[in-house]
């Protein structure tokens, strides 16, 4: 027996690894509207984009969690495997031509449940179907049909418990429809959920290129609370109620493992942006307002389709740019500490130099699943061959970045923290002239036999912690830099190995003085 919900899909949420490609596909190719951009409600450092029709109506919405350059997942049981949109029935031919012209992978036309379908793949490999079941659109002046995507038509769920999954979906206003092979179609008043019996198939693995959840519509909070009470009695999966600002919702897993959300129709996405201007402003979740400026720097940037944007070059290290509104010709290259990522130091660097472009880079060595810049044998013993190999690769990366992004090589500043600072110091020893201005936070000397070289053209700021266990090695590094004629400014501050409030002002003062040479 279904609960008293408004029927149909509210939205589908998926995961992408490349925000610019995602926007270009869903806005530029499909013609959806970007109706909201926020920091994630579970993790404010994760960008969350919402697409839909111009009014951001439930039933038109598809949303993406942005795991920029994140690990791919695997589509399998316990996941939504495909999404489908309705388009005018007389527009399928033009959509096929559009896909071929823009080199979007396309299969079809096919026929599924009596409907004409094109199967596309988005840039992450997610199956996006266009279903020609919408009202025929009048032809334009050039004789072509309106291609507009009208609403979500269906989602496909993979499950090893198809009967239980189908019964669970009925709770949300769906009724059994036709069967085709291993697929049971469930119908609401507006759309469909296709339950595919995938017994024996692999389980899904979360990651980019997969779906996180599908959300069904609820009229209001009272309906969501009623569902919470009902499901807590009947279902073994825990339920979690959330206020998502634009809607209230409940999460639960169906028997086959797919994450299901119930989401209210209101208050809606015009809560903090005027109609006609949805999606223009980046919002941060309630409770994160104090770090809103940092989040705007940390979250990945993108441009509207057709607008100017930073090109993307294929280089040997994962990297990301932050470009301020009025950039100077200075670029700060950022090297994170152990377990960090390419964005970690962007807020700090932006406070140090608000007009500088920021180029964050991710180390390629991995230790216990976290990024580093080189392998280590212990906390004081490091893989010397790996340091040299990664230094060689990084030197090639810098050369490629300068050429590919047309950076001013004379205006590069390198900023590293901990493991990243250690790697920068090694780079200066192994590739003199590559790093001419460096800010080293909590560094140590990691080369067993640091060579003699000429660093007379290099300026270095070192900031070390008096309580840091690496402090003795930092003093050895300072001595080595001075012996090799680098211009060195060194500070020992009252802190340990982590960042301190003193780091930013010291770096900013150095950059405005000695760091300008």
Automatic annotation (TrEMBL):
InterPro entries: AB_hydrolase_fold, Extradiol_RC_dioxygenase, Glyas_Bleomycin-R_OHBP_Dase, Glyas_Fos-R_dOase_dom, VOC_core. This is Glyoxalase. Residues 8-133, 151-265 form the VOC domain. Pfam families: Glyoxalase. Gene3D superfamilies: 2,3-Dihydroxybiphenyl 1,2-Dioxygenase, domain 1, alpha/beta hydrolase. PANTHER family: RING-CLEAVING DIOXYGENASE MHQE-RELATED (PTHR36110:SF2). It comes from Pseudorhizobium pelagicum.
